[in-house]
Amino acid sequence: MRAARRRLPCQPSRPRRRPRSGGRFPAWRGKHRAHVIGNGALVQSLLERGYAVLAPTGARQFGGNGGRSWNFLPGRDGRDEAAFLQDVVDDAARRFGIDTDRVILAGFSAGGFMVNYLACAKPDAFAAYAPVAGGFWRPIPATCAGPIRLFHTHGWKDATVPLEGRYLRNKRFQQGDIFAGLELWRAANACPDEKPSAYSETGPFWRRVWSDCAPGSALELALFAGGHTVPDGWADMVLGWFESQPRN
Asked: Which of 83, 92, 147, 150 is most exposed, with minimal Cβ within 10 Å?
């Protein structure tokens, strides 16, 4: 029996008013749901725009303090995160009536890595993807399925997940270069050129977009001057981008 047939331990934050026409609902993912729901400013900005926030918890445990992460690296035993997240969405649709065709999968740090790997393997599983401060580990995948709708946000001064990546645990693991990941996404979207189609600024964000690519695709990068954090203004920027995309 699939987990979606039972009530999953995921209580969403829901908007007080009825969602706007089309019913759009992002799912935000960090390592633990308490970290997400506890970010009152972020959650409030989403709710005020008529969105619900689903915040499940990673399956992998580490350390002695109850730490959690996501089972995203290919070939590892453990929970199938793609199936689990789909079960969460299906369960929320039955219980709360969300529109399963308008779900954004977003995540910060380890959650951002998970978003990239899931998008690479299953680009059609969610309407769009929005990783923050997370990419791929080396070796990065050789190819990704596509086309994809993805908006990546990253801090210029991020020292936890630097844009160039870094080694961890005595060089046992190595984070990948964020720009190498973008090259992978451009290939998945059949973009004809490496050069961005346009540049813009939104508040503190410096944005690059690749729009002359496969029909139905969307790829954008937003940099900001800060470090390893979800910056103020992120939610409104990403939801504005999402709402501007034609519905599949």
From this structure: 83
